[in-house]
Amino acid sequence: MANxxxxxxxxxxxxxxxxxxxxxxxxxxxxxxxxxxxxxSARDYAIFxxxxxxxxxxxxxxxxxxxxxxxxxxIGQAGDILFVPEDRDMGVPxxxxxxxxxxxxxxxxxxxxxxxxxxxxxxxVTTPLQEQNGTxxxxxxxxxxxxxxxxAEEALKIADQRKDEFLAMLSHELxxxxxxxxxxxxxxxxxxxxxxxxxxxxxxxxxxxxIVQLQRMVDDLLDVSRISRGVIPLQWGRVxxxxxxxxxxxxxxxxxxxxxxxxxxxxPTEPVxxxxxxxxxxxxxxxxxxxxxxxTREGGHVWITLELVAGVAPEALVHIRDDGVGLTSDQLxxxxxxxxxxxxxxxxxxxxxxxxxxxxxxxxxxHGGCVEAQSAGLGQGSEFIVRxxxxxxxxxxxxxxxxxxxxxxxxxxxxVVDDNxxxxxxxxxxxxxxxxxxxxxxxxxxxxxxxxxxxxxVLLLDIGMxxxxxxxxxxxxxxxxxxxxxxxxxxxxxxxxxxKQRSQQVGFNEHxxxxxxxxxxxxxxxxxxxxxx
Length: 533
Description:
This protein has helices at 2-41, 61-67, 71-74, 85-89, 92-103, 147-191, 200-228, 241-258, 278-294, 331-334, 356-366, 421-432, 444-454, 470-478, 497-506, 518-532; strands at 46-51, 56-59, 106-113, 119-130, 136-145, 237-240, 262-266, 273-276, 301-309, 315-322, 370-374, 382-389, 413-417, 437-441, 458-461, 487-492, 510-513. By secondary structure, it is of the alpha/beta class. The longest helix is centred in the N-terminal third of the chain and has 45 residues, at 147-191. The termini are far apart. Residues 339-353 and 396-410 have low confidence and may be disordered.
């Protein structure tokens, strides 16, 4: 009986043991299936294994998506083909495998190669693949694609480098005209204007040229800032491009003649109309024509052509072509970006900040158009093409006025107020030379007193003054019965849109930004005087 009982217990134990083995095998199969499902679902990660010869032995769907190889294509292939050629030449795959085996982990972050030859930036970890007894039988690699982050980092690095280059160039470009002005004024002071090698007319001409250059750079800086933030309201209207081109050419012709360049114009016989802001479109033309002067050699040519492309959506095309230094393929698009110049070398033939084309691009796009650059290469000239939506009805309904108001010079009183005494005095002197009765004050309190005593017709008022600023002065004058009729003009260095809005709110009639174009100021005074009469 005892033997039979022992045999029964042994059989029962064997049955239990067999059942345990079945359950264990089922559990292992389930575990493997779970692992397989996990690997197959990890589409954002490339997970694959390599044998000790670095041949691919397993491959998940994430690896297929990342590298472009199907599983049946890559299994058995050398994993080295996933590295870029330069890394293979340097023995990077071998070094990575060796580090993983010796140290138990190898981290890498570098460029990798896809099946189609393209590259992506991947970050991964390689670890040993071990049996239960600890024997290393291969390697496991887990990777993710960081190309977007890497490209963003590179873009930021390039932008930062361009910004540093731009700031260095800005310092250089501002110092040059300032140094020329300083030296000219110093020579005039030392010689009392009696040196025949630097006559007073010549000195004035030289200083005017430098001031124009300074003003152009400041204008470009302000234009880029204002346009990029969308704070320049466009005054939309029907604009005839041929007339606008003639005006731009007339304004810049003297520069072409002084630099020994030829500007050739080709306009259609029929007018071409667009909807836009004539002032800013003129700036587009002037900046492109100025660019033509800069990048052509002495005796060079610039051609400006206008054409109308008919169709369902007609387009006006302005071509500005030159036979100058030309552009590389990389420059054709980058040249329109902020802080990018065609030539940033120390020996570049022309100065400037390289912002003109950025302003052009932004203005043209605000008008619903686009601008592109074309060039066959360095030394083969370049062409800029401005495309603007043309009005479908090209018939002229505009009336052109040829009446140019001239300033009336009698019994018209102005008060100039600025805490910069030299600026106030010279502004008053210039206006006085045009025949106007002009007075000056140098602070807010005395401005209010003078306004009450003199009752000027026009008050040219600075805003940024110590004590009582221009906003407060304007408000206090407007509160007086005698101050309501005064035409108050802000003459200030504050030119942002919010500055103009505030000046309008406190009672200013106009807002002009320093340094003010004297012709613009005279035309404004003439207009005011015409209404005053």
